[in-house]
């Protein structure tokens, strides 16, 4: 991860406070970051922006700190973004995913600070997560272990976060509380339906083990009785050891693994190398950290549906 740059005080950047970053949806396409006639929300990256837009509807102006196509883990806050936080009514972020965002939020005077990580439960995950974890000594994952921030890839946890965000919006903008409550219920209903689709769609697969380059899918694996074997740890840019690559080849053969999954925002070089060594194919399993022209869907729901189809194909849906 890049070295952190020092934050620049908002007072030094007043002239740019009306500027906004490019947003991820029509809801926040060209509006200013703050001082609009709506409830101004700054979201740290796409999964947070999706919640803010779906729950806030027409009452919110949402801007996002992470541009489409940018790897969220690598984000460094700019002076303009620091000023953007100061001008907003609320910030919605996920603590411990983007350290520069955490620092900026801590130093900002924004009235409503919503940490998604505080709205559900987080667990420690290493390189291997899921049903077969107890059968191994787990040593390869210990140095990578930590509180896994990828809660949005579990529809159940994501729904819990959505409910918490909805309540926070109601408290911060009580004039529109009824609409926020209604929008939250509608979103939670869609996430519940997504959970059911995953539960039913993965119940009868021939294999329960999948290999990824990035340990982003631990919560999803646990939720649906699968095992994620990650080439890298929670940091998608880390390089695997030769021993880890060899171990994965053995796992693939033993557990009937057919596919090495990679993600859209990080190079597929490691996935292809491992796949070639083990005689496997590659495919995309999207951690939904951002929506781009290469995404297999236009929003969180549709990309997750595409992920379900990819898993069913790789695991052998019966």
Summarize the structure.
The chain has about 325 residues and is α/β, with parallel strands linked by helices.
Description of the molecule:
The structure is a single chain. The chain is α/β, with parallel strands linked by helices. Helix content is 38%, strand content 12%. It has ten helices and nine strands. The protein has a five-stranded mixed β-sheet with strand order 5-7-6-8-9, with helices on both faces. Strands 2-1-3-4 form a four-stranded parallel β-sheet, with helices on both faces. Strand 3, helix 3 (99-107) and strand 4 form a beta-alpha-beta unit. Helix 5 runs antiparallel to helix 6.
What class, by secondary structure content?
alpha/beta
Strand adjacency order, main sheet? 5-7-6-8-9
- The ordered string of helix (H) and strand (E) elements is EHEHEHEEHHHEHEHEHEH
Name the helicity range.
Answer: 25-40%
Rg, rounded, reads: 20 Å
| Major sheet description | 5 strands, mixed
Q: Strand fraction band?
A: 5-15%
Strand tally, please? 9
Mean pLDDT rating: 83
Shape: globular
Low-confidence stretches: 1-32, 131-145
Number of helices: 10
Span of the ends, CA to CA: 41 Å
